[in-house]
Amino acid sequence: MHLLSAVGLGAVVWHQTGVVSWALAIASGAFLLDLDHMVDYLVHKKGRQISIQEFLVPGQPSTWQRMVFFMHGYEWIVGLGWLAWNYHLPILSWMVCGAGIHLLMDEVGNRLPGNRHRISPFFYFFCFRLSKGFQTKKISYWVNEEGQEV
């Protein structure tokens, strides 16, 4: 999903600005944010057999004891956005825009009514996850078909 949206964002920016580097920057910001999922997956596996097929299973991280996702945090968007703005760094600005759109898509997608794994309203704040020790059971919960916490 994020790959398709990243390509779409890049295409729109390229079409509207004609600047290829900005298009690549917003696309990379929107897509590469998910590299932290790979890091968490490798940590979770701890030397056991890794599988691309298993890695790509939607919702799989919700079964882990810890979810760090170190790049998923509004704090990074604010901090890097400030840096890009104050130091006039257009490439970083476009990357931050892409990452921000990615987080907003995650906010919406991970809160759809059909999801049985629910996340805290503060999940996408890195400091919140850190304060809870990144423990999955402290930053998320499961609900049954009626929407009641289990």
Summary of the model, kept short:
The protein has 150 residues and is mainly alpha-helical. The protein has eight helices and two strands.
Q: Report the order of strands and helices.
A: HHHHHHEHHE
Overall pLDDT: 94
| Physical arrangement of strands within the biggest beta sheet | 1-2
Radius of gyration: 17 Å
Our count of domains comes out at 1
The stretches of 5 or more residues where confidence is low (pLDDT under 50) are: none
Shape descriptor reads: globular
How would you characterize the largest beta sheet?
Answer: 2 strands, antiparallel
Q: Share of helix among residues?
A: 55-70%
Tell me the strand percentage band: under 5%
Give the SSE layout:
Layout: H1 2-17, H2 20-31, H3 35-45, H4 52-55, H5 74-86, H6 90-109, E1 117-119, H7 126-131, H8 136-139, E2 140-142
Antiparallel strand pairs: 1-2
Helix pairs in contact: 1-2, 2-6, 5-6
How does this structure look, described?
Helices cover 57% and strands 4% of the residues. The chain has one domain (2-142). The protein has helices at 2-17, 20-31, 35-45, 52-55, 74-86, 90-109, 126-131, 136-139, and strands at 117-119, 140-142. The longest helix has 20 residues, at 90-109. The protein is mainly alpha-helical and 150 residues long.
List keywords for this structure.
8 helices, 2 strands, globular, 150 residues, 57% helix, mainly alpha
